[in-house]
Write a structure and sequence with these properties.
The complex is a heterodimer of chains A (about 150) and B (about 180). Chain A contains 3 helices and 6 strands. Chain A has helices spanning about 5-25, 45-55, 55-60; strands at about 40-45, 65-75, 80-85, 95-100, 115-125, 130-145. The N and C termini of chain A lie far apart (about 75 Å). Chain B has an 8-stranded antiparallel barrel. In chain B, strand 6 (about 110-120) and strand 7 form a beta hairpin. Chain B is of the alpha+beta class and about 180 residues long. Chain B is built from 2 helices and 9 strands. The radius of gyration of chain B is 19 Å and the shape is elongated. Chain B has helices spanning about 1-20, 75-85, and strands at about 20-35, 40-55, 60-65, 70, 90-100, 110-120, 125-140, 140-150, 170-180. The chains are: A alpha/beta (about 150), B alpha+beta (about 180). The interface between A and B is medium-sized, with 28 and 24 residues.
Chain lengths: ~150, ~180
C-alpha cells in the first residue's frame, strides 16, 4: 500500500471517529442516577437547617453534587412528578423533581411516608414567606416506607 | 389594658387575614419552547415557586435556571454555561399583578381570564411584559396557566454562531401551576 494511501486511510478513520464522537456527544442524554455515587448522604431536617442558618455556604457545598437523603413526604404533585420532603410545622422544604422515567415506575410515595431519595442539587430559593426551598432534580427513590 | 388587648386582637386578626389571601406552590411547571427549521428545543422546570395574593392580585414566580431539563445533555450544559450563565444569574423572576383581579371570583368555581402585567427578569435583565392567562377555581383550589413569548436578545442572551440556526430568537414560555392556600 502506498504511503499516500495509508495517510488518507488514517485521515478518513480520524474523520469518521470524530464524526461518531460528535454525534454521540450531541445526542447524549442525562444519565439516570441509579448507579451514581452520592457526594453527600444526609437527612431532610439537617439539610434544611444548614440552608436556614447559612444558605450561601450550603449552596456552595452542594452545587452540582449528588445528594442522598431521608425524609418525610409532605406533598406529592404526581401530575408534575415532584415530591416535597419537609419537617412538620415548617414551610421550608426539599423539592424533588423525579426522574422522567418515574412515571413508568410503580412507586407512589404516600404523604407522611418515609423515603430515601437520590437526586442532583439544582439550587435553592429563600424568602420570608415560604422559608427555604431546596431543589433537587433527576431524583430516584431508593426506599419507600409506605404508611 | 383594654387598648392593649384590642390592639393585640386586631394585630392577630389582620395577620390571619393576610395569610388567608395568599396561595402558593413550590412545584409550578415552567416550559420553554424554541422552534426553528433545524431543530425544536424544549425544556421543563417543575419546581417554580409561585405566590398569588388573591386580595391584591399580586403575582410572583421564581425559577432556578439550573432546574430546566433538556432532552440533550449537551444543550443543557450550553444553556447553563454559555447562554443564561446560570452560575452568575441563578434565577429568573416575575413580579407583577393581575390587573383585572376584581373580576376573578376566587371563591366561586369557574375559569377566569386573567390579565397579567409585570416585570420579568432573566439573565440579570428586566423587561416589562403583559400577557393573559387562565385562573381556574375548583373545590377551593386555584390553578393558573399562561403562555407568552419572549425575545432572547431582550435579555442579552448571546447564542454562539455555531448554534444560531438551531435556536429561535422568539421563545414560547408556558406556566402551569396548582396553588394551595398559605397556612393550610
Amino acid at each position: 500500500m502506498s504511503r499516500k494511501r495509508i495517510i488518507w486511510t488514517l485521515v478518513l478513520i480520524a474523520v469518521a471517529a470524530g464524526a461518531y464522537y460528535g454525534y454521540k456527544e450531541y445526542t447524549r442524554t442525562n444519565k439516570k442516577l441509579t448507579n451514581a455515587k452520592a457526594d453527600f448522604v444526609t437527612a431532610t431536617p439537617d439539610i434544611i437547617n444548614e440552608f436556614e442558618i447559612a444558605d450561601s455556604a450550603a449552596d456552595k457545598k452542594y452545587t452540582d453534587k449528588i445528594i442522598e437523603l431521608n425524609g418525610t413526604v409532605m406533598n406529592s404533585a404526581l401530575e408534575n412528578f415532584t415530591i416535597s420532603l419537609g419537617v412538620p410545622g415548617k414551610l421550608s422544604s426539599v423539592m424533588c423533581e423525579m426522574d422522567t422515567s418515574f412515571k413508568n415506575e410503580n412507586i407512589l410515595p404516600v404523604i407522611a411516608s418515609e423515603v430515601r431519595i437520590r437526586g442532583r442539587y439544582v439550587g435553592y430559593q429563600k424568602d420570608d414567606l415560604l422559608g427555604v426551598g431546596i431543589s433537587l432534580n433527576r431524583c430516584i427513590i431508593l426506599h419507600n416506607d409506605k404508611k | 389594658m383594654r387598648i392593649f388587648f384590642t390592639c393585640t386582637v386586631l394585630f392577630f386578626t389582620s395577620t390571619f387575614s393576610f395569610a388567608q389571601d395568599k396561595y402558593f406552590t413550590r412545584s409550578g411547571k415552567i416550559q420553554f419552547f424554541s422552534k426553528t427549521s433545524a431543530e425544536n428545543i424544549d425544556a421543563t422546570n417543575r419546581s417554580a415557586a409561585v405566590v398569588l395574593d388573591t386580595k391584591t392580585g399580586d403575582l410572583q414566580f421564581a425559577v432556578l435556571m439550573k432546574g430546566f431539563e433538556f432532552k440533550k445533555a449537551l444543550m443543557q450544559e450550553h444553556f447553563n454555561k454559555d447562554y443564561v450563565e446560570s452560575d452568575k444569574f441563578p434565577k429568573a423572576e416575575f413580579k407583577g399583578q393581575i390587573t383585572n383581579n376584581a373580576e376573578i371570583k376566587y371563591t366561586t368555581d369557574g375559569a377566569y381570564t386573567a390579565k397579567v402585567k409585570g416585570k420579568l427578569t432573566i439573565h440579570g435583565e428586566t423587561k416589562e411584559i403583559e400577557t393573559t392567562g387562565t385562573i381556574t377555581v375548583k373545590g377551593g383550589k386555584i390553578s393558573a396557566k399562561s403562555s407568552f413569548n419572549v425575545q432572547v436578545p431582550d435579555y442579552k442572551i448571546k447564542i454562539p454562531g455555531l448554534y444560531r440556526n438551531q435556536i429561535s430568537d422568539n421563545i414560547k414560555i408556558t406556566v402551569d401551576c396548582s396553588l394551595e392556600k398559605y397556612g393550610g
